[in-house]
Amino acid sequence: MSSDTPGGNRRMSLDAGEGEVLMSVQELERYFDDGISLLDRLFGESASAVRAVDGVSFDIHRGETLGLVGESGCGKSTVGETILRLQEPTAGSVAFDGENLEEREDLTEFRRNAQILFQDPFSSLDPRMPVGQSIRQPLDIHDWPQDAEGDPAERKQQRVEELMERVGLSADQLDRYPSEFSGGQLQRIGIARALALDPDFLVLDEPTSALDVSVQAQILNLLADLQSDFGLTYLFISHDLGVIRYICDRIAVMYLGEIVETAPAEQLFTNPRHPYTEALLESVPRVDLAERERDIDPLAGDVPSPRDPPSGCRFRTRCPKVIPPDDIRINQEEFRVIMDVRDRIADREIAVEQVRADTDGDTDRAADRLYDRLVDTELPDQERQRVHDALVDVTEGNWGRAGDRLRERYESVCETDHPTGEVSCHLFDD
Amino acid sequence: MTDPLLRVEDLTTRFLTEEGQVNAVESVSFEVEQGEVFGIVGESGSGKSVTALSLVDLVESPGRITDGSVWFRQSDLAERIREDNPDAVDGEMVDLRQLDECERRALRGTEFAMIFQDPTSSFNPSITVGTQIAEAVEVQQRATANPRSVRSRTQGFGLLKFLTTSVAPGVDYVSEESRERAVELLDTVGIPDPAERATEYPHQFSGGMLQRAMIAQALASEPSVLVADEPTTALDVTIQAQILNTLSELQSEYGMTTVLITHNLGVIARMCDQVGVMYAGELVERGSLADLFERPTHPYTEGLLGSSPNLDSADRRLQPIEGNVPSLLDEEMDDRCYFADRCPKAMQECLDKPSELDAEGSETHRAKCYLAEHGYEDPLPEGYFDE
Ligand code: SF4
Ligand code: SF4
Asked: Which residues 30-69 on chain B approach chain A with CB closer than 8 angstroms?
């Protein structure tokens, strides 16, 4: 059943992601709790784990390239390492070739069949080892070849030479050390090593991010060629949307430990659905003469901490389309401003001492000042009054009441309900 | 026609390392008009960052600027210098390289500012961001009043080290006006609730916010020229978009002249009027954005464009540049076109002698390549470089 992987079936799996599932990931979680100090525990400081990967599910079909894209800290590299069992998942399941990995007693076969290529070619090869030996290492570890034909040492040597040439280098260079190669060449050597055992599946973790663009293009072309020659299946992890578009058949977009949208590449780029995907695409500067005139409305703010992610939709603290309650007539931008004030109040992140001192206990004036500081758009009267009242609470130190006052009126489905579905956004709820 | 604001001529910077002399920047020349953004694009080791440092005279040992001039248009200064140092003046232009140390530093504090890829090195971790920017404001004021009278506690940290390497009796006091100005500056660069953020320490800022704060610090000196070295490279793309928008807004608001160094052609496309492409320490092509994007002449420029994945279309195989960047060690560099062994159009003469940058082309669009002179003639035999 694993033999029906002719090279070049990549295009066939392009659109629907149909075909045989090689890897199936369900509700994968990976938490880190090592950052929590004893002191935090003693004082009950909100000691919570970093939820690096928090309930991620996807399938990868045989012969396709699935892209996993997102910004730093979104958990994409952790997904790559966890599905290969280089890190233990906190929860969830991973099935490879129809078999659940937790149920396999012995992962040797899986480890042979699923390899990883990392970003930094300088650190992934042993500097004291000739590169030929590095490429041979996996063969030694896995006792390759398993059949008894010919002289094993000779066959290994042959295999290493073959690999070296397949990635565009010369077998004459096998005795050289990593320091004698450029970054691009080292990445080729890394690829040769990853392919040594003839795997079906490769995780490519930012494989070209450390390279210059001219060399990156060489490596991307090489990876595409190898895929069609050997019928490889890739999980391609990257922050670079241009690279992702170039190499991937389907793409999953991650934000703060979750996948927010999965779609065929073409569709994702021409018709992004999740507001985060949209913002991400809009942010990338195009290599195009018209780029200067393109209007970009960048996302405001920063990504929240994965220790304490927002309730409901994790993107709601930055989402320009956050959904107002049905019974309020307010435009999108105004609602965003109010939600920002609410976030600040929830985090108690408004400095009030100075304002209080400046206004001699006149809480109304103090609240006016805060209002001017925090609200830079014209709100409808009713909303302005409501926000102002909440800020009076804040100047009085009554954060809880301020929060309640605003929640009563502005609570959004985006904060109460975690979106599920193909596009993880309530705008796409049926 | 007025002179450009900046005219760089034959700027050459070398590093004397244990392995030998490294020709990091080799005879680089370009002009930047007032109010314009000049982009320098190149890959690692191309010499673009060293060019930036050389412009503002911040090359550190074992590097040294060994040749060339940086002409800067400033009529008052030209007037003042003319008497003592006539060689250093050309009309309203002054050659910064011929000024004495002290004049140069004073200029740095007032006319030039620089922002870097890593903002953390520009801030002292134990002083609030507001105070540090206020100090930059004071530095500027005192530098204007008297070039020798400034010191700040941020000395030793990136930008301010750069602003204040001329040290004299320190002043720990920062005036109320300077503090207010600092808050204004934080507001200008788009930091929400700036009065509050001014009281925070650098570690309380996210990467993007600290990058903005560094820009505010640079603006404190109301510079005529801003040199930005990979200002968004360390940032995520959504944050990069914020910072680029902020920089463009400031650019049009203050009419600042900017030299922007980047490896990212998208950033070039978004920000720049004129562009220089660097390869192996040399400026190999320069021209307007349209010249470079639509009519690239140098095969390296073409190669860079061909290697960049296009976000808006997937129907294209990337056209990489084969081979790797050459060594910049003097002893390993022959007197020929350094791109020749990666160039798909290399000709015999390219190996005999390098082409000049001012080879025939238009007045403003130039390429250091024989193709600009006479097109493709007398190609090398196929496989010439495969030993
Ligand atoms: S669920 Fe709400 S906050 Fe989340 S992406 Fe959709 S609209 Fe935005
Ligand atoms: S001078 Fe010759 S080798 Fe150099 S870039 Fe031009 S054509 Fe190529």
From this structure: 43-44
Prior bond to A178 cis, omega within 30? no
Q: Which residue of A has its CA nearest to B273?
A: A292
Strand order in the sheet with B89-90: B20-32, B6-17, B63-73, B93-95, B89-90
| Contact assignment for A292 to B271 by CB distance below 8 Å | yes
Contact B262, B233 (CB under 8 A): yes
| H/E segment holding residue A202 | strand A201-205
Strand partners, A396: none
Could you tell me the two tokens for A332? 């999108």
| Interface confidence (ipTM) of the complex | 0.87
φ/ψ of B244, rounded to 5, equals -65, -40
Gap between the terminal Cα atoms of chain B: 52
pTM: 0.89
Tell me the pLDDT tens digit for each residue of B281-320: 999 999 999 999 999 999 999 999 999 888 887 666 788 8
Considering only the beta carbons, identify the residue of A215, A221, A287 that sits closest to B308. Answer: A287
Instruction: Give the number of whichever ligand sits closest to the CA of residue B297.
Output: 2
Specify the residue for token string 């238009």: B362
How close A236 comes to chain B (CA, Å)?
15
Q: Any idea what DSSP says for residue A227?
A: H
The series of mean pLDDT values per 10 residues for chain B, 387 residues long, is 89 93 94 96 93 92 93 91 90 92 80 89 91 88 58 45 41 80 91 89 91 92 92 91 90 90 96 96 95 94 91 78 86 87 91 81 86 82 71
CB A156 within 8 Å of CB A135:
no
Question: Could you tell me the two tokens for A160?
Answer: 């290493």
Q: What is the predicted pLDDT for the residue at A422?
A: 85
- Which residues, 6+ apart, have CB-to-CB distance to A161 below 8 Å? A171, A174
Name the residue of A256, A427, A428, A430 whose CB sits within 8 Å of the most ligand 1 atoms, as the mutation to test its pocket. A427
Query: What are the beta bridge partners of residue B381?
Result: none
Say if residues B185 and B133 touch (Cβ distance below 8 Å): yes
**Residues paired with residue A30 on neighbouring β-strands, in sequence order:** A53
- Whose CA is closest to atom 6 on ligand 2? B369
Phi, psi of A33 (to 5 degrees): -115, 15
How many angstroms from the chain centroid is the CA of residue B117? 12
Token code pair at residue B206? 């996210």
Decide: B38 and B259 in contact? Cβ < 8 Å.
yes
CA proximity to B377, closest of B332, B344, B347, B357: B347
Interface of B with A in 323-362 (CB under 8 A): 324-325
Start-to-end C-alpha separation, chain A? 38
